[in-house]
Each structure stands twice: as C-alpha cells, then as structure tokens.
Amino acid sequence: MLLSKEAVEKHGFVSTGSGFLYEEKEKKLLKNGICLKFGISKGVGVVKNGKGGIQPAVFVDITHASFFKSQNLIESVKSMFYPKDSTTLTADDWKEFQGLYKGVRVYVTYQESKSITISKLSALPVQKITFPFEGKEISIPQYYIEVKKIPLRFPHFPGVVNQIRKPDGSLFEEVLPLEVLYVIDNQHVPAQKKSPDVMDAIRQENIIPPHARFNLIKNSMNKLVPDSSKNEFLRKFGVRVNMQSNEVRLKYLDKPRISMGNKLIDPEDKTNWRTATLSYSKPTSIKKWAILCKPEDKKDVVIFVNEIIKAGKNKGMQFNNPKIVHLNDEDDLYFWSDMFCHFAQKNFDFVLYIGEHSKNVAGDAKTNHRKIKLFESLYKVSTEHISMESIQKCLARDVSTLQNILNKINCKNSGLNYFPLARGNEKYALEKGDTLVISYDVCHPKPSKQRMNFEDPTFNQLEPSVVGICANVGHDPHYFIGDHFFQKPRQESADSEMMIEYIKWLLKSLAKNRPKNSRPLNIFIVRDGISQGQYEMAYNEELQSIKKAFYEFDPKYAPKFVMIISTKDHNKLFGEYSNGKIYNPYPGAVVDSKFVRNDCFEFYLLAHNPPQGTARFTQYNVILNEINMSIDEIEDFVHALCYEHQIISAAVSIPASVYLADKLASRGDDLYMELKKLYNELKDIIPDLPNVPAGQEDYKQLSNRLGCKNSRLETTNFRA
Question: Residues in domain PAZ (predicted)?
C-alpha cells in the first residue's frame, strides 16, 4: 500500500488486486467489449542482500491484462457481433453474450447509485415484456418513454433480469434494457472467459525486448516512488527505496553433454543440438500399426509413410507396413468405437491419425484431436495426431517437421531419443539408477477449453481438478512415464488417498521395468505451480502422503528425499548489462547469492533460450533436503533435468518431468471435457463408461477408465 499511493493519486493508476496496479486509460481495444490495460506487478520479500545479511526488497515488473471496457452495454453487444446487423442476432448469439458477461457489474445510467451484477438475460425482447404499473399492464418501452422519458432504441433486444427482494422477503424480477446499463470500469476478464484471441493479444503485448522492458520498469518505479528520500509519506513510515541496489552476480552452469545413439554432443550456446544424422539412443520397433486418413488423402499419406519408414530406419527404428483405414465419416462414433475395439483386440502397437488441425470460431483446436485421444484412453491404444499441413511440409523436405514426428513416434512407443549427462554431478546421475525423480502438477479449468462459459453453458465449478504425475520408472532411468487422476474441484493440493495409490503404482512399475534399480536411494520430488503460501501444504500434506506410499510399498525401504518447488509465476527479472544496454543472459545463468530467501535454498535458473521478449528465470525453492546436497549440486541436477524433453532437441525452461506432469494433467482435463461432450452418444455404444458429469464418488472410476495405470499404455510416454 505504501508504494501504491503516489501512482494512484498522481499517475492515473488503480489498484485491482493484491500487488497489481493498472492504468485507468485503455491501451488497446479488442473484440467482445474487451480492452487491454498497462499495469505494474509488485511484490515484497525479505531476501539476502549479497553482503551476508538480509533486508526487505520490492520486486517490480510491468504487465498487460484484459478488462471489460467501461461503456454502454449496447456498445459491448456491437463489439461482440460486428458486422452482424442487430436485427439478425439469434438466441445462440444472446446465449454467448450472456455467458461472457455473466458476473459483470453494471450501473443504471438514469440512477448511477444503483448497480447490479449481470446474471441472465430475459427470454423475450423487452418490447414483448409487460408488467402491472399503476393499475394497468404496461410494456417496458412504454414505461421508459412515459415514466423515465427515455425512448428505447433497441426494444428488440432482451434485457438484463435483476432479482429484487421485497420487504416481506419474497423475490420479484425486474428487466432492465441493455441500453440503460453501463459497464463499471476496472473489471478483469476471468481466466475461464479469455478466448485464445484475447490470450494471444496479452502475450503479444507482454513480449518486450529486455532493454525496453527494464526501461518501462524503471519508469514505473518512478511513478511508484519518484524520490523516496524526499517522499514525506514514506518517511513517516521509516521507509526508503534504494533503486540503485539491484545489481546481482550471475553465474553460469556448464551445459550437460547429450548422449544420442553412440555419440556425445555438446549443445550450442542456445542449448540446441543437431540430430538429423544421429540415431536414437534406444530406437523402437513398431510391428503392428495403423493409419487413419480420409480416402482423398491416401496418395499423399502413402508417400509420407515411405518417408517416415526411411527416416526412421536411419534412426535405428524398425517399421512393418501399416494398415491404412479410410475415415469416410469422422463424426460416426460407432465407427470410431468399432475401429479402436479392433485395434485393441488385435494388439496394435500404434495408430497414426491424419486430420486437419482446423480452428473453430474461438480459435480453439477442433475436437477430432480430443476425440482420438479419448478413444486412445478408452481402448488403451497409443495414438499420434498429425495434420495434413504437417504432411505437406514433410513432402516438401521440411526436415525439422519430419524429425519432430519421428521423435514423438519413437518416444510414444517406449523408445528413448537421447539423454543428458550432467557435468561434475555424476553422483546423482539418473543413468546410475540410484535416483528417482517424481513430478506432479494440478490442473484446473483452462481458458482455452470449450468449457468457457460463452461456449459451454454447462460449465460449472464442480468439474473435477486433475493431477498429472510422472517419474523416471520406465525401461531406462531417463525414460519418464506417468498418468493423471481426478479429484475434488479447485483443490490445489493433490488428494492424499489417490497420491498414495499412484506413487505405489510408480514404485511397482519401477520394480517391474528395472528390478535391479527397484529401491533407489535418492528421491527427488519436483512440484510445480504453487505459491510460497502453499509450501506448508506441500510439505505437511503432499510430501507426507508420498512418504506413506513408500512405507506401504516396502516398510524396510527408507530412501532420503529432496523436495523442490518450481515456478515461473513471479515478477523477478534478471538481465545482463553490457555497453549501456540490457540483454537476456545466456542459457545456464543462475542467481543464488542475492534477492533469494534466507530460510531455504532458493535460486533462479535460466535453462532455455527464450525465442523472443525478456527471459524469465524459473524460481526454485528447496523445502526439504535430507540428502544434504549443496546448492551447486542441486542447481546442476535441476539444470540437467531441463535437457530431458525428448521431443525438442534443446533445453526447456522447466525440468522435463514437471513439463510432462503438467501435460498429463491437461490431457486428463481434455479427456474429461470430451467425454462429457460426447457422453449421451457414447453411453449407448460403450457400456462401461464412468458417470459424467462426475461426482466425487466417481473420481476413482473416472481415473481408472481414462488413465493408463495397469494397462498396456502404462509403460509408454503416451503424452509425448
């Protein structure tokens, strides 16, 4: 609050939540009555000062966010449906508008002290709605012109229904025309209502080169505290902000070497390495596989298959000729079910689906991708979806696209493409078999899904959350496999009972896949996506469930644990200053001596090469260290995990196990929503479907039916 006063009173900012200030003026107008605003993100903490002591620090970044534009509600309607004529708006259009604007607060233009929250629209246009007034039945337009002296210009539009409680406690409904309602300023667009277009606009505004971004941050700080030494308000509280104390030492970690086939590779400065001429470390053999494609695409598909088989052999893979199945009607669920039932009964290893990645009106991927993944999960047959656009690229000799497809096929079929060899940290090297890495993440409803209120009116807060969990328990110590399970909605902590069950499954998988390594000594838990206020929950609840699972698996087995929390959701930025400009540091940069917590190991690591904008380091907090590793050892270990992705031939920004856990959780979420969408049709085709919508009593059955645990998919990285 101390740092907000100046910006709010003198520079046109408004506080919209803890740690955020946004300019009242709009920066950019979007569709649907939505705008973008420039803002400041700030936080405080007690950190090391680099001189052996601690001190409070303020962290500032700039940001952009979406808001509902403050305007007459009619203008919001026009923005949403332009260039449609207002007389042609349909019931579906109004349902879409209601879904987006439900929960938005508006005031009444002729009585500005009165405000309401939009809940629903009237079923009829206001010109067809009457109510008793002074002993007679009167229409809404007639009431407004006779009583309010306001002629309605859009009587053919529905109105907003507002419930009012009478003195006797009973409720009655008034209907307010849209044109007498005005959207109140500074209302964020909720995450679940941000369309892909809105999210893309936010991303584009936030992609700012480092030097420009740091200048914007500096200017923002001048608005927060123009001169703290002369700021009487801060002085009275004994606060002074030193804006010259933000120098920090960067150190650089050695990049791990990459083992691919029988060769060792040194990644380039941007962490990438060339793979076209190298074989896989563990190439797979695909004996029985099928291709699903449209009849008109068969000619190109056959040429593509020959290219895949040829390129795969150069990588050490073995392919038998596939069975080609024509998709005459992609909407025929009986056909999909019969086809996948056949693949499962005949033990097909793999199914390649060739289809378009077309976009719907909201910009979201069409659900044929989700559909094939749903049938993959129901029948436990591994699949890959490739667009005809990608096939055309391959036929045009686009080597990178072909390599990417091969990487996925090999990985999905239990192959290992490559693995990193950490330098100077061999003690905890995965290939030794004494180290187990477990990662998990919780997924809540995502904005890009069809569950958005204005696309899916059935969305409610009772949709289950999904936990993705994985570990390096495959046939090779570098091969991660995992699954997802469902739990109570909006619960950030992983369910204890389910966590125990899935940890024990991972341990049993390890004993089956690598019996010689079935009791690793060092267990690393890498958890993603929680704030510092949730560390206690992770330690006291989730970690204890994990330890209990180990004990139940084998009471005599007593490994040591390290628990690391990773997050990119912070507002600390680090740049390299050279010749008067600020640049992104090279990959491998670490901050661990200043601006980090004093009560636990905390460090910031830039493992990847950011393709554009300002680099954002990943923050790591070590909340348990039973092995007594040094900070250098932990940094090297985490750094190497960022080179385990398997599909991308470069480092990623977070440990690959965390990346996989996040994708597994998202996959479970997608599967649930697709099953819900198709449920009424599928329940007559597939008799043992779990109940949808799912209640709490259904989560276990849902997890078993849509997951891979205890099925033929459990030994594969099916989410690759």
Answer: 84-185
DSSP annotation string for 601-648: EEEEEE-S--SSS---PEEEEEEEETT---HHHHHHHHHHHTT--SSS
The helix or strand, by DSSP H or E, that contains position 77, with its residue range, turns out to be helix 73-81
Task: Determine, yes or no, domain membership for 257.
Answer: no
479/386 same-domain check: no
247 exposure class (CB count in 10 Å sphere: 0-12, 13-18, 19+): exposed
- Give the DSSP letter of residue 494: P
Report pLDDT for 221. 85
Sign of the torsion angle spanned by Cα atoms 73, 76, 78, 84: negative
Q: Which of 136, 218, 125 is nearest to 178 (CA)?
A: 125
CB 273 within 8 Å of CB 256:
no
Classify residue 308: in a domain, yes or no. Answer: yes
Contact call for residues 456 and 102 (beta carbons, < 8 A): no
CA-based end-to-end distance of the chain: 46
Helix, strand or coil, per DSSP, at residue 68: strand
Of 171, 203, 236, the residue that ends a domain is 236
User: In this predicted structure, what is the pLDDT of residue 486?
Assistant: 95
Q: Looking at the chain, how many residues does it have? A: 720
| Domain annotation covers residue 384 | yes
The CA angle 672-677-683, to the nearest 5 degrees, is 90
User: Is residue 426 in some structural domain?
Assistant: no
Are 179 and 124 members of one domain? yes
Cα separation, 477 vs 434, in Å, equals 9
How many CA atoms does the CB half-sphere of 504 hold within 13 Å? Answer: 14
Split into its structural domains, the chain has a count of 4
What CATH code is carried by the domain that includes residue 99?
Answer: 2.170.260.10
| 519 in the same domain as 484 | yes
Going by C-alpha positions, the residue among 480, 479, 478 that lies closest to residue 421 is 478
* Nearest partner of 452 among 441, 460, 462, 443, judged by Cα: 460
Residue 39's nearest CA partner among 76, 69, 8, 75 is: 8
Torsion-angle region of 335 (φ positive above 0: left; ψ -120 to 50: alpha; else: beta): alpha
The count of other CB atoms within 10 Å of the CB of residue 385 is 21
Residues 207 and 288 in one domain: no
Specify the amino acid at residue 273.
W
Whether residues 227 and 102 fall in one domain: no
Q: Are residues 371 and 519 in the same domain?
A: no
- What is the structure's pLDDT at 146? 95
3-state helix, strand, coil in the chain (%, to 5): 35, 25, 40
Domain of residue 688, residue span: 440-571+622-706
Preceding peptide of 690 cis, ω within 30°: no
Task: Identify whether residues 405 and 297 lie together within a single domain.
Answer: yes
pLDDT at 447: 43
Q: Report which of 177, 179, 154, 156 is spatially closest to residue 76, judged by C-alpha positions.
A: 179
Q: Which residues of the chain have a pLDDT value below 50?
A: 358-365, 447-459
Report the chain's C-alpha Rg in angstroms. Answer: 29
**CB-based contacts of 355, cutoff 8 Å, min separation 6:** 292, 293, 294, 327, 330, 368, 369, 372, 385, 386, 387, 388
Instruction: Tell me if the bond preceding 693 is cis, omega within 30° of 0.
Output: yes
**Which residue's structure tokens are 């903490």?**
45
> Element (H or E) spanning 376, and its range?
helix 368-379
Q: Last residue of a domain, which of 369, 390, 411? A: 411
Per the CB < 8 A criterion, the answer to whether 608 and 650 are in contact is yes
- pLDDT tens-digit readout, 126-149: 999 999 999 899 999 999 999 999
Same domain for 677 and 549?
Answer: yes
